[in-house]
Amino acid sequence: MRSGADFFVLCLSLSLLSLIPTAHPLGFRPPRLGNGAYLTREERWLDQTLDHFSPIDHRQFKQRYYEFLDYFRVSDGPIFLKICGESSCNGIVNDYTAVLAKKFGAALVSLEHRYYGKSSPFKYLTTENLRFLSSKQALFDLAVFRQHYQDYFNTKFNISSVSSSWFVFGVSYSGALSAWFRLKFPHLTCGSLASSGVVLAVYNFTEFDQQIGVSAGAECKAVLQEITRLVEEQLQSDGRSVKSLFSASMLSNDVDFLYFLADAAVTAFQYGNPDVLCSPLIDAKKNGEDLVEAYAHFVKDYYIDSFGTSVLSYDQHYLKNTTPNETAARLWWFQVCTEVAYFQVAPESDSIRSSKIDIRYHLDLCKNVFGEGIYPSVDMTNLYYGGTRIAGSKIVFSNGSQDPWRHASKQTSSEDLPSYLIKCHNCGHGTDLRGCPQEPLNIEGDATNCTSPEAVKKVRQQIIDHIDLWLSQCQDTGDDDEPGLFLTGKRMVSAL
Ligand SMILES: *[C@@H]1O[C@H](CO)[C@@H](O)[C@H](O)[C@H]1NC(C)=O
Ligand SMILES: *[C@@H]1O[C@H](CO)[C@@H](O)[C@H](O)[C@H]1NC(C)=O
Ligand SMILES: *[C@@H]1O[C@H](CO)[C@@H](O)[C@H](O)[C@H]1NC(C)=O
Ligand SMILES: *[C@@H]1O[C@H](CO)[C@@H](O)[C@H](O)[C@H]1NC(C)=O
Ligand SMILES: CC(=O)N[C@H]1CO[C@H](CO)[C@@H](O)[C@@H]1O
């Protein structure tokens, strides 16, 4: 049922835009397109409830999803749900989950996150219209999808009243959703992998910049700090020139510009390319070259051209646009400004980023972009999910040693909530599923180019063991007396 004049389904108008790479603060960016990047890009659609928490509003919108059945073992295969996060979900990415699906004979399905990509309920992304954008609504979407797909699946394979064994996967924000889905809907999945899952909402996230310092090492860190100081001076004397040197003349707000520069360095560590950043900077320092120019070289070549960042997405004027040509940055900032914060504030001493990137900057941005009264309810979010004290079970957490986001993930381990750290020089965000570097995409998450492929392999084997064990323990909780057709109690994987 549809009603409301402002209510549109964006199917056609966005189809070209979904190919444009996204850049935003947390970002699982869609991988750069290449042969074999996706297992499938064939779109399927689900009628989804707009507001899962209203007893009177029954409006629906079209939500996009994908399925890939080539590896599925019809007799007893599980269903792996790869959760898409804060960007357009253009298909099922061919990362390490493809290897896992092959091993377990699993069907792979993926649901686009509401509002992102083609799954937006509204044409105009006004603050008012964004009120149904939250992790809580998104989890309910996943639950509804889980039921819908099981029904469709049973019809397709001509079986009845059987629930397959499900397992959920996600990286980064979708890693947090993966953990939270198992927490809130334990009857709908046998377990969860939360790869670099940021389950802790953080208001004053100073550890983020500190981790960049640790990941960079003393020498590179010192050069990065010097660059920040030099750029701050040049902004005072001739802001126009320094912004133009970085192809960022459109950023009229100086702190938007400084934030953009900080994010460029972050990305190198987060996505496993530390040497692309640090080697030339250390050389420039040794040779007495202009450090700001050397950094501009990195930002333009790597962050803008190769990584595909839109500089405009750092511009608060652009973020205010309610019909942007690329929606992810505005949408993610809304989630940041209402639910999870992760404000990447400069630590009080020894920071790499400019000290102008403080809490005030973030709060002003939220207010400027979304209006008075917008404020992240970090305490409520952590009250609702438990933060790092999440009281779920059968969730694997994994973190990359160089990834600044790991300080918002669960880093302590217990039997039911194991946590693993993958330690190597270029192990960043989602290394277990993506290999090294984490961008551009490695087909099937190839880890050959991680500085320690063994470290990745070891954690992957632990993940496989957990999936295997938890699938084997999974019981059909349906009311019918029929024993679950797929659920034989035996381990799903024989020869690993
Ligand atoms: C589905 O199963 C029923 C009962 O086992 C059978 O009669 C029917 O022919 C099957 N249909 C298909 C499409 O396989
Ligand atoms: C933010 O955290 C840092 C380091 O933990 C602390 O020194 C600072 O006082 C905090 N700022 C606010 C406003 O809470
Ligand atoms: C988006 O639109 C702006 C103007 O609003 C334009 O400058 C920019 O190049 C466009 N970006 C893309 C990726 O199309
Ligand atoms: C590993 O790095 C080498 C050298 O840069 C490159 O040629 C090769 O394609 C990379 N392998 C993978 C699997 O990415
Ligand atoms: C499970 C695990 O290895 N946790 C480690 C994650 O990283 C922190 C350091 O930030 C270690 O203290 C934990 O032991």
UniProtKB/TrEMBL annotation:
Q: Which Pfam families match?
A: Peptidase_S28
One GO cellular-component annotation of the UniProt record comes to:
vacuole
Q: Which residues form the signal peptide?
A: 1-25
MF terms from GO for this chain are: dipeptidyl-peptidase activity; serine-type exopeptidase activity
For this UniProt record, the keywords arranged alphabetically read as follows: Glycoprotein, Hydrolase, Protease, Signal
State the Gene Ontology BP annotations.
Answer: proteolysis
Q: Which family does it belong to?
A: Belongs to the peptidase S28 family.
Identification of the protein by name: Probable serine protease EDA2
What is the originating organism of this protein? Ananas comosus
